């Protein structure tokens, strides 16, 4: 399909979701120097279902808190604004697509487990990089979380065609994004980039989401994109439980771009392997 036509088709046939309202409110509050941590926590508390999920995530092993947080106000003080925003984003995005849970022909829960693992892994990996990534490590959490969100957007908007792409990828033994291009003329990465752009994520993260299926070794001039591509490569293998295959996703050229030592990558990979079985949706 002609790229220009595919772009027009994407715009006309797929509704890009709006940023969850609680995240919008927090973003506005973060711009106000007069607003404190407890006020942001109190705002999250107004949305009871989201607040419950936020507390569960905040008390998970990933954040390793020495004390259990018992309210979103407490969580905001212990974790800080950026981290709380990431947790709210995670809870809100998954909640926004909860009606797709149990969809026949596609494992939505597995997608969210991959997304959560990717979010945590991207943040951990960024913390180990010496190169200038252009963003704080916590900001890569959003890119990891949203890099595959285009899949649920397609499932929600054009379910029959998306499920046909899923089946085609199995039949041909190709990656899903390639089958999507065959069916739609575009893929979930393009959708994800549109979502990120509409939601006001930094341009570096929009690019990272849109290009996360490129080979990390081919992205030597784009550290932020390289990080998400390398994260995705690792997190696609981790669910198999194959430690050797997971560690083998290390790429020396990507490491050089990121200022990431192999030992640092192996440490992050080991944490991902350990963490994956305990991830809850």
Oligomer: single chain
Number of strands: 0
Span between termini: 37 Å
Helix and strand sequence:
HHHHHHHHHHHHHHHHH
What gyration radius follows from the Cα positions, in whole Å?
A: 18 Å
Shape: globular
The biggest sheet amounts to: none
What's the gist of this structure?
The protein is 65% helix and 0% strand.
Would you spell out the secondary-structure blueprint of this structure?
Layout: H1 3-13, H2 21-30, H3 37-45, H4 48-58, H5 72-79, H6 81-96, H7 108-127, H8 140-146, H9 149-157, H10 159-172, H11 176-184, H12 188-198, H13 203-210, H14 223-237, H15 243-247, H16 252-258, H17 262-275
Helix pairs in contact: 2-6, 3-5, 4-6, 5-6, 7-8, 7-14, 7-17, 8-13, 9-10, 9-12, 10-11, 12-13, 13-14
Key words describing this protein structure:
281 residues; mainly alpha; 17 helices
Explain this structure.
It is a single chain. With 281 residues, the chain is mainly alpha-helical. Helix content is 65%, strand content 0%. The protein is globular. It starts with a helix and ends in a 6-residue tail after the last helix. The N terminus is likely disordered.
